[in-house]
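Hey, can you fold this one?
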Amino acid sequence: MKLSANGVSLEVEDHGAPNGEPLLLVMGLGMQLTAWPDELVQMLVARGFRVIRFDNRDVGLSQGFDALGVPNIAITAMKFAFRLPITPPYPLRALADDAVGVLDALGIAQAHVCGASMGGMVAQLMAIHHPLRVKSLTLMMTTTGSRRLPMASPEVRRALMSRPDDPKNPASVAAHLGRFMHLIGSPGYRPDPAWMQAKLQAAVQRAYRPAGTARQLVAIAADGDRSARLAGVKLPCRVIHGQADPLVPVAAGHDLARKITGAELELIDGMGHDLPLPLLPRFAQGIALAAGRA
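Sure. Predicted structure:
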């Protein structure tokens, strides 16, 4: 369903009993709400949560911002490297305000929040700027943005900036995404290739909006280091990170857990930068543990 949130039209799905414990799932860079596995949603509903997932602005079926133009990623990367000011098409905080707007539209005063990758950064900003709206935090494979942390490998950074051989061909786009997901995915939990391609093809058919991803990427770069801002966060928090994450190395998980008072850190062997099916029960348990501390 479409909801107006923070003045933006967002695609939202609402699962579970209306009187369940509200849980907002916030997905990562360029990823659609369907990247939260249906199986995970079902596990969380079975635990008594009312699970809300949505497409962030500029991706999936939510409102686009093409009028703001396509940012030059190479120039942004250069500015980032030399610590020059970056002016994004919209700030990353706008995505946090959008997420709170989803709660407003559904009449939810407070929710548990789980964010993955960029979604974890958005969840941090929700806790920083809207602390009374957040009951607990689960932050998966994400980072404070500290400059002191190790970066992704050059191979991963090159792949992140690469493009499909034929951007207008859905099969070519799905194959391109498949190569990238294999590169950053969990080496200990490799999915069936045919299953993965089917999932990616369905995602591409639903929406493929690389310009929106580029705008989100610049928003991430412009937001910078959240470490000092996180010092004031006093919420039950669980940090979940893969030991084998090649996109956001595991040092980021350690750093994040240190900088949020009372945060619990769960490190998972063999996990990369994805949500493997065998680990879904563990993720559901982690989210429930964080919520249980609220």
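The first helix runs from residue 38 to 46. Let me know if you want another pass with a different chain boundary.
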